[in-house]
Amino acid sequence: ECVPLETAFFQHKEHGWISRFPTIVNCLVAQKYFVGRSTDVFVSSLPKSGTVWLKDLVYKIKRRGGNQDHKNDLLSPHQKVPFLELQVYASEDHVLDIDSLPSPRLLSTHIPYPSLPTSLIDSGCPIVYIWRDPKAVFVSDWHFFNEIIPSEPGKNHPPLTINEKFECFCNGYSIFGPYWDHVLGYWNAKKNGANILLIKYEDLMVDPVVQLKALAEFLKLPFTKEEEKDNIIHGIINACSFQTVKDSKMYESGNTELLQVQVNNTTFLRKGKTNDWENYLTPKMAERLDLLTVQKFADTDLI
Ligand code: A3P
Sulfotransferase domain: which residues (predicted)? Predict the structure, then answer.
């Protein structure tokens, strides 16, 4: 029911059958076991949209003031706000116990909205969804998977050239399904009344103060006049900025286990820019992605 079988795999000319949604098993495990609470807060996204940044911001907004927990300071945002399908339910053995965590729990997911655990949707908990220009998502994704996925032939995820990977991306063969469907899934759910805030990576870059205020209000923890006077907003923005995080101790040596693979924390920070895609995509490739976006998002306020 989550993903129609005929669209779940595609045949690559050299590498054979490749799943377009290889995390589907973990999504099913999450659907089966996850028990939602209305007090949960979810960070949701497609990989490479700025998830780690938003996790850090949400954590700092929710845990500010009396809620601060300094023993977690050296943990990566992925440890403080774990992914349901990549960490909590990375296997049937439930790698992390979230049922005994006190509320409010901060959790995250890359699962497309229509495939989210029913219990999560029914809880009505707030979901913050971050999305990003597909050209930037594609380039970031290509680098990320080149770096973490072993390149020996015969592995589940054979390395693809940028042109092969681009063809896959345009045709919707991505790890959590098609880019445009993913964004539209959350956008449509919000339009239909779900408790979702959509934030665009590029807007967060251009005007972090406005976005952070909106985020805090959405989480029902607006910044007080006092906090504004004390520059708390700028303090959070600076603490979560690309350079600050890159220079922090946690990124020097730490690893995060995702789907039982140790991923070095430095892998989650590459360039942190809005226009780095210009160095990798030809004008023709960029035009193709822009055209697809205009077509797919035609009836929305996303463009
Ligand atoms: P680039 O590869 O374009 O640099 P995700 O967390 O969803 O995997 O997204 C990773 C992308 O977000 C990477 O993009 C990464 O550099 C960028 N990123 C991570 N932390 C950031 C921050 N604090 N500010 C801006 N961009 C950040």
Answer: 39-300
